[in-house]
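Pair request: fold both.
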Amino acid sequence: MQLPRVFVTGVGVVSSLGLGKDAFFRGLEAGKSGISPVSSFDASQLGRQLAGEVKEFDPRDHLTAAEQRRMGRCSAMALAAARMAIADAGLGAEQLAGPRTAVVLGTTMGEAQLLADMEKEWIVKGPQAVRRSMIPKYGSTLLPIHVARAIGAQGMVLTLPAACAAGNYAIGFAADMIRTGRADVVVTGAAELIQELQFSGFVRLAAMAPEKCQPFDRNRQGLLLGEGAGLLVLESEAHAARRGARPQAEVGGYGLSCDAYHITRPHPDAAGSIAAMRAAITRSGIRPDDVDFVNAHGTGTKHNDAAETKVVHDVFGDRRVPISSMKSMLGHCMGAASALEAVGCVFTLETGVYPPTIGYETPDPECDVDVVANLARRGKADVVINNSLAFGGYNAVSIFARPGVLPAPDDRLATAAPATPAAAS
């Protein structure tokens, strides 16, 4: 049986740069900052007060009253982005309903704010004071359930809590579902919410910058948190063709690995990340020279950016492949980061625009890469890489390409080298 190509046919976004595909794309091209003072809780005693908070999102604009009662803010953002992606794909209700549509979403903490609210009620007033209506809302496993219920999808539903690499994990799993014939359509991506406990935790880890995130800059001081949802509709080539859909991008291969080293730092030699990126390239049936742009994980922390530079040099050698970090604009959206950035990769493929790394001022010899600094750049955009690293040593790399650029999936398998254990995906 010939393996199907997997196409992105629609995208939806809830982000600090704006709501919807068009606003998100305009923000990326303009190098807009989505960073502002936190307003959802009092951060004045924490020593840090800035984040990529989504201030424009109002669930009442996107959900029915019944849906609003059933779910928390993280699920609401995921469902709103899913509806945007489905509308962008031009899929009708009758094309989504049934067992051939699946929902696979990533997150780190899901509805952690609801759990924190319940704990406060318990501590202050006792267990009987906890509102019964809150109990069925907080599980991270509910994110894809809410989306599936809203669109009538009766195929597999799955939450992948793979830390800050969760978006790439979800997209890779979703693509495999289509390649192996288990689904025709998968709504995938990730959602994440800024929450007080999470925010204070990163302050305590001394990982947060005081004013701005400056990936790859010599004077970088850490990350800023963000939130939002990035959702993609993936379809098999045959399903998209039957309904006359226009593919926006093709999902290529992906690579996964674990550093097996440290809970918060990447391995200094970056061997796991290198293996994951090489696996993604090999499984896409291409060579490193075919990659036109790298969307970096680019957190703005000392260790992460230095390790990621080693990956780029090892994989691409002396070639100066353009690289940029959307986290400089969005903040680090945790589990949703690589999903939002995957939507950004679709933007690059469709427009030839490499989004900038804003706030980049002083080159760092330890991060000697071709940073797209402060202003967007135009260039060849047939194949792009989406790189993500996460606490615990999760490494996940996905590849997106213009439709028709990659070899047929069967040809990719025929030419792919056997994977090492570190690069298995």
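--- second member of the pair ---
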Amino acid sequence: MKPARLLVLLPLLLLTATAAFAADELDSGDTAWIIVSTALVMMMTPAGLALFYGGMSRYKNLLNTFAMTFVSYCLASVIWVLWGYSLAFGPSAGGLVGGLQHFLMAGIGPDSLSGTIPTYVFALFQMTFAGITVALVLGSIVDRMKFSAWIIFCVLWLTLIYAPIAHWVWGGGWMGAMGALDFAGGTVVHINAGVAGLILSFTVGKRIGYGREAMFPSSITLTALGAALLWFGWFGFNAGSELAADGVAGSAFLATNTSAATAALTWMFAEWVVTGKPTVLGIASGVVAGLVAITPAAGFVGLGASLIIGLVAGLLGFYSVAKLKKMLGYDDSLDAFGVHGMCGIWGALATGLFANPAITEGAAGLFFGNPGQLWIQVVSIVATAAYSAVGTLIVIAVTKLLAGGLRVDGDSEISGLDNALHGERGFEIT
């Protein structure tokens, strides 16, 4: 090769080599963004969800709801670094679950990288997802489940249900290999938690007096504040799931806010038409419905799709809470299934409809020339729901055996779990 031609090609060769090795180098901007995102998602559980659920629970069970939310996050934090991360993101065993090679984070150090960020940061980010997912389930059984039974349930459910499904979708498992799209947790988080909550609510049974007496929320103000904190933290949840500070993260940020606002307005107007009153609880619930629905699609869809996803989520969430629950006759105390399960299903389907390759290359839905993606999404929804339902039933059976039952005694339920289980009261009113 002539020297002159070599001089022309040399910069191109260097540029190619730089691009090839970029993915193996730490990026300080990406790392900083994911650390911030992790902190945002962490806040969603012991602050956002605790207030959101606590305000909807009755005054005599407010602190019990807080305690269950806090302990969910604490258990997930410990379980994740012991074996949860390894089961979800360790080397795949037939596409079904990771191994235990990373038990107690073995083989991972400060210099280990996952893409352009430290593996420790990636693991912590994923840990916050595990924490909020199991905490979402408790909304279905507020006011009546034994605290000891809840602790056992959390340990088993995180290990046997959450970790395998996370592996299927994000950890190198069969669902990701199939091409299922779940940007930030439609199947892994919301469908999984919603279905588990539905099964748990049927198993534990209805609250004493349910359907015969009014069960007023302790504080709609706390619930609205919790919804606002969830909304704030959800930007880390969705935009952080890009695992980079780039344009797709910005697009996910925009889609998340738009869907949440649209769903809140839709729920408000639907409730206004049906009941004659636009309630604060309805607006706050609509925000969460929109956030849930956009989660699997956030990094794959454009602005127009986010408007449609939020609009449908507001209507679907309101219908599920106001009508579907009564039709099916279950007592899902705080509507874990009605909001997270149903809107999570819609979001996963919507991803198969509206995924736009102009947002994320290679991700195309039905309306962008890839009808097969919708079928893949349906398979992922059915598989997640089936595994979560059957697996949760098994976890419940083991929990009942170890805890001596799931439900508190009647006297404790009537008097309130704050005092009966914790010896405390949420409010001192004189």
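Observation on the second member. Confidence is low (pLDDT under 50) at residues 1-23.
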